[in-house]
Amino acid sequence: MNALRLASRLSARASAQFLPRGAAAANPAAAAAVGMRAAALPAPQRPTATNDSRRCYSASPPAPKAPALHELGSVDHGFTDDRVDRIAEPERRAFTYLLLSGVRFAYASTARVLVVKFVSSMSASADVLALASAEFDVSAVGPGKTITVKWRGKPVFIRHRTPAEIAECATVPMSALRDEESDDDRVLKPEWLVVLGICTHLGCVPISGAGDFNGWFCPCHGSHYDVSGRIRKGPAPLNLEVPPYKFTDEAKILIG
Ligand code: FES
């Protein structure tokens, strides 16, 4: 019996010599069987990232030490390489100034053209300006006659007055006028009267050669104008308006 126990212990001790330490820790019974105490065994060393890295770097040669920034100076080498030395290169400075001036001049010219085009787009077009003024030949209008022309969409009376009519208008006192205005102030030439054919009451077109004063009569509400176009009777408050005009020739009138 003792021989069997001795043979078993020798067999367990022999197998424990070939067990790895982790296996002995995982199987304390086996370790105890061979006289080893599991608690006394050192902790199994598992591979860690640090250990692996150490093994990895230990195999390669050490990396060269990077130089410090103060040893290299500025890391922005492009700035120093491309920098223009304006003192050492005056011709390059002149070229730079010329280039900048040219670009700015081009910008200013473009801006000016745009502003001029924008402002001119808001002004009246050529056809509208052509309608702003109109010239009329009155050589065929005899004394005592009145013609009606159109200017800016409005009727205009042009009357060739006789010497008797001119004298009559000149003798009217200011006290007899509702809208006090002398005949001389309403004409450029005494024989020609140019007035808008629009009643100053509510805008009707008066009738020429009618009314109590042989000038114009507005049938809408009964306003009477004399041969100077001044209101003499009726509800109209003002004289007939005199448009801007001038004589371009002896018998040509430019209105507007
Ligand atoms: S519109 Fe001419 S009198 Fe009234």
UniProtKB/TrEMBL annotation:
SUPFAM superfamilies the UniProt entry points to: ISP domain, ISP transmembrane anchor
Enzyme kind, highest EC tier: translocase
Sorted UniProt keywords: 2Fe-2S, Disulfide bond, Electron transport, Iron, Iron-sulfur, Membrane, Metal-binding, Mitochondrion, Respiratory chain, Transmembrane, Transmembrane helix, Transport
Topology within the bilayer: Single-pass membrane protein
Cofactor binding mode and count: Binds 1 [2Fe-2S] cluster per subunit.
Protein localization: Membrane; Mitochondrion inner membrane
Entry EC no(s): 7.1.1.8
One Pfam family this sequence matches: Rieske
InterPro entries: bc1_Rieske_TM_sf (IPR037008), Rieske_2Fe-2S (IPR017941), Rieske_2Fe-2S_sf (IPR036922), Rieske_Fe-S_prot (IPR014349), Rieske_Fe-S_prot_C (IPR005805), Rieske_TM (IPR004192), Ubiquinol_cyt_c_Rdtase_Fe-S-su (IPR006317)
Stretches of the chain forming a coiled coil according to its record: none
Catalytically driven reaction(s): a quinol + 2 Fe(III)-[cytochrome c](out) = a quinone + 2 Fe(II)-[cytochrome c](out) + 2 H(+)(out)
Cellular component aspect of the GO annotation: mitochondrial inner membrane
Cofactors: [2Fe-2S] cluster
Rieske domain sequence ranges: 163-254
Organism superkingdom: Eukaryota
Misc note: The Rieske protein is a high potential 2Fe-2S protein.
Protein name: Cytochrome b-c1 complex subunit Rieske, mitochondrial
Species per Swiss-Prot/TrEMBL record: Stephanodiscus triporus
